[in-house]
């Protein structure tokens, strides 16, 4: 590794670690867990995925999307059942990677990706508003103005420093600079230590204290499947985004297997489950982190904060971290998607808006599923509309239908409507040279068409079937001659 790249990765990892700590603490509190569980999960998952994953530069940790999934489980059954869920979820992720199912991310259309990015950017921004509360009440008066001023100062440093120098990541300079100013001036503003005390020891391995029987499996399995699904989706979509930003190619199957293994280790050492974190990934990439070392440094720094550096890290003003995350939200949001909403097809615009809204108000898995369903239905509708027929009379008085398009479940009705069994001559030919048979609905449609002609005493001959179509018909026992 070149010295310049080494330095960039170390500084980027250090910057990312500052952003990891408050997020992981907040997500642990959301899930009604000890903040140290979030920090242990961040250390283990970030470090292991950086070392063995398929996408250098991407940062994983105890993510909020997964914290939301397991709140009900923790409240009803306790922490030990959560740890068992993390283990089972990790096994599912490993299986997903080993079965090479990471390629399924190719099924996610680009409008869904834009909606995903926009939705998460909004979530990142909205999550920072919680830091403007003191208990249940919103800040007001001097504390509010001081908080807003420090946030604005942080954002100004992040935006303006690159115009002067790129020797130091602007987010790192902003966090350290604002933190030093608050300390020297004795400004009364909330710090990371006000969220939680993060001092602790090394995580200790232990098997979750639950009965290992079918009853326990019935409790944890639904949460484990949902946790794995959400984690894999967010990881694979973040991997795609990282590929675009770095103009390089990651390996989704390897990333899925590494993420699953990291979750297994995290569960055994008392940590939360986790997946890729788009906000921290954006901080890492914008700070120059491109190699595995950046993720390793970020993970190891989280552990050092817990073991030795908690008195220092707890002095960091929340305003500095909020300012950095606001910049991340602004840079993550795909602003270009707003400019093209009136230029792209209406259905694509609908997908972008729908996925964005559903991501904000529900969860990522539901949003992506909705987007894929909308896109798939639209694709089926468009393909069905493109099926058409050329017809003409032959010299012998028979009629030729030459079909163009794709015959599948959505186009069977338009296909059958092309023909006129009652008005056609006794001999009819169907030329399938430009027609593709896709599914069993297509086979059933051809069978129905043959029966309609046979019912009126006429003969339908089918020509120029592709070899694949012949095999489909043969397997279904439908004659085509």
From TrEMBL:
A Pfam match: STAS
Where in or outside the cell it occurs: the entry states:
Membrane
Q: Does the keyword Protease apply?
A: no
Asked if the keyword Transmembrane belongs to this entry, the reply reads: yes
The main place the protein resides is membrane
Top-level taxonomic group: Bacteria
Organism from which the protein derives:
Azorhizophilus paspali (Azotobacter paspali)
In the bilayer, the protein is annotated as: Multi-pass membrane protein
Q: Where are the transmembrane segments?
A: 36-53, 81-99, 111-129, 144-161, 168-186, 217-237, 258-279, 291-309, 316-338, 350-377
The STAS domain extends over 388-481
Please provide the record's keywords in A-Z order.
Membrane, Transmembrane, Transmembrane helix
Give the protein's recorded name.
SulP family inorganic anion transporter
């Amino acid at each position: 590794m070149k010295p310049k790249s080494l330095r960039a990765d170390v500084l980027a990892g250090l910057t990312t670690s500052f952003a990891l700590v408050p997020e992981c603490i907040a997500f642990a509190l959301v899930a009604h867990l000890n903040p140290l569980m979030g920090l242990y999960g961040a250390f283990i998952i970030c470090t292991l995925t950086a070392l063995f994953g398929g996408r250098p530069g991407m940062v994983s940790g105890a993510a909020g999307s997964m914290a939301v999934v397991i709140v009900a489980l923790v409240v009803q059954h306790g922490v030990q059942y959560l740890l068992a869920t993390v283990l089972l979820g990790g096994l599912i992720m490993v299986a997903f990677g080993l079965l090479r199912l990471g390629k399924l991310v190719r099924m996610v259309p680009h409008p869904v990706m834009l909606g995903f990015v926009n939705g998460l950017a909004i979530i990142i921004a909205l999550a920072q508003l919680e830091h403007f509360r003191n208990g249940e009440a919103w800040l007001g008066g001097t504390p509010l103005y001081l908080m807003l001023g420090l946030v604005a100062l942080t954002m100004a440093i992040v935006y303006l420093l690159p115009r002067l120098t790129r020797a130091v990541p602007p987010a790192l300079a902003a966090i350290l600079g604002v933190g030093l100013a608050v300390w020297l001036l004795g400004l009364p503003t909330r710090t990371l230590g006000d969220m939680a005390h993060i001092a602790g020891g090394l995580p200790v391995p232990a098997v979750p204290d639950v009965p290992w029987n079918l009853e326990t499996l019935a409790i944890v399995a639904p949460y484990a499947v949902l946790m794995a699904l959400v984690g894999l989706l967010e990881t694979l979509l973040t991997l795609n985004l990282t590929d675009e930003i770095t103009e390089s190619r990651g390996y989704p199957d390897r990333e899925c297997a590494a993420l699953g293994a990291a979750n297994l280790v995290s569960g055994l050492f008392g940590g939360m489950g986790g997946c890729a974190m788009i906000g921290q990934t954006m901080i890492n990439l914008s700070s120059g982190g491109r190699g595995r070392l950046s993720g390793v440094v970020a993970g190891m720094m989280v552990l050092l904060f817990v073991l030795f550096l908690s008195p220092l890290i707890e002095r960091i003003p929340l305003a500095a971290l909020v300012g950095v995350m606001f910049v991340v939200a602004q840079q993550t949001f795909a602003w270009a998607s707003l400019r093209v909403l009136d230029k792209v097809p209406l259905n694509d615009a609908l997908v972008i808006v729908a996925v964005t809204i559903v991501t904000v108000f529900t969860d990522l898995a539901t949003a992506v599923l909705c987007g894929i369903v909308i896109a798939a239905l639209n694709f089926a509708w468009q393909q069905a509309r493109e099926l058409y027929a050329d017809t003409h009379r032959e010299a012998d008085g028979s009629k030729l239908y030459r079909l163009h398009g794709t015959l599948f479940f959505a186009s069977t009705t338009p296909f059958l409507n092309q023909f006129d069994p009652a008005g056609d001559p006794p001999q009819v030919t169907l030329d399938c040279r430009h027609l593709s048979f896709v599914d069993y609905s297509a086979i059933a449609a051809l069978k129905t068409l043959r029966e309609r002609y046979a019912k009126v005493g006429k003969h339908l001959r089918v020509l120029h079937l592709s070899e694949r179509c012949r095999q489909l018909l043969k397997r279904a026992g439908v004659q085509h001659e």
